[in-house]
Amino acid sequence: EMLERVGLTGWGEARPRELSGGMKQRVGLARALAVEPSILLMDEPFSGLDPLIRRQMRLELVELQKGVHKTIVFITHDLDEAVTVGDRIAIMRDGEIIQMGTPQDIVMRPVDDFVREFTLGVQKTKVLHAASVASKPEIIVKDSDTIESLRSLLDGSDSAYAICVEDQGYFKGLIRRETVDGIKPSEKKPLRDYFDQSVEVIPSDTILEDLLPTLIDSDHPVPVIDKKNRCIGVATRRDVLRVIASESDD
């Protein structure tokens, strides 16, 4: 079972010399998991691997952790690696923890010059979440509102769309200006009948690197929702480009 979890199905009878470096690391991980520890300590486990295999192992470890639900203490001198695999990061100097927090906390709010210098090379798009760039939509309507009230809001705005929510803020859809322009005054359907509920939404904890492809393919700002499906704002290409531009300034 453990070999299957670490991607080594069918290799149970193989000898060490028949395994690649990455496969040997998987064997070590399978052995550690087999005894069902409550905490797993990994001391620079991927440092001897080539860059391509190392990146692959990082991602596999993240996926594996989601399945086994174990606390993993991962020691590394590579902050990019820490950002990839860690929910929380502790920065140590001279044997003492000088800052501990989420990757976003560490990169965006360093406590001193040492941490600031240590994080300079980290790409913010790998750390920041969609929630950090989400802005309030210019027009928000509720599913109980009328077409007439939405027309009035659009007439006083340059926005090409409106975000539609329920009374508690739960995301219901998006309605475009051209859709509203095409509704005849004689039509008496409720506003909710015109919502586009097929638009792609992004969870608030999505990192910007994963958000970019959705923004590129979208003809409108992308709604950002929390774990309760409440719309906390929208993300735009401009918002993400601003973050990327700030990295160039740094």
Automatic annotation (TrEMBL):
<protein>
    <recommendedName>
        <fullName>CBS domain-containing protein</fullName>
    </recommendedName>
</protein>
<dbReference type="GO" id="GO:0016887">
    <property type="term" value="F:ATP hydrolysis activity"/>
</dbReference>
<feature type="domain" description="CBS">
    <location>
        <begin position="195"/>
        <end position="250"/>
    </location>
</feature>
<dbReference type="InterPro" id="IPR046342">
    <property type="entry name" value="CBS_dom_sf"/>
</dbReference>
<dbReference type="Pfam" id="PF00571">
    <property type="entry name" value="CBS"/>
</dbReference>
<dbReference type="InterPro" id="IPR000644">
    <property type="entry name" value="CBS_dom"/>
</dbReference>
<dbReference type="Pfam" id="PF00005">
    <property type="entry name" value="ABC_tran"/>
</dbReference>
<dbReference type="InterPro" id="IPR003439">
    <property type="entry name" value="ABC_transporter-like_ATP-bd"/>
</dbReference>
<dbReference type="GO" id="GO:0005524">
    <property type="term" value="F:ATP binding"/>
</dbReference>
<dbReference type="InterPro" id="IPR051921">
    <property type="entry name" value="ABC_osmolyte_uptake_ATP-bind"/>
</dbReference>
<dbReference type="InterPro" id="IPR027417">
    <property type="entry name" value="P-loop_NTPase"/>
</dbReference>
